[in-house]
Amino acid sequence: MYCQRFDLNVHITRHARERMAERCINECELHDLLETGATRQKDDARLWIAKKMPGRADNLVCAAVILEDNLVVKTVMHHFQWED
């Protein structure tokens, strides 16, 4: 998978793939999330990307990612809420 938004190839960790399966989030939905979701930076390399997904009743879907040589998806969450 490639993410145009960050101009990086995407690497999905084993942990993230397991969470995607548990939460019924497929790669197409993940790709849409990475390309169009709202972002919040934790630091220069780490951020969260979240989006309300059509047809899902579990609040925001969120990916915790790291910007390295690839865009590394560390985990995928649902029932996510931004902290103020």
From TrEMBL:
Pfam families: DUF4258. InterPro entries: DUF4258. It comes from the Bacteria. This is DUF4258 domain-containing protein.
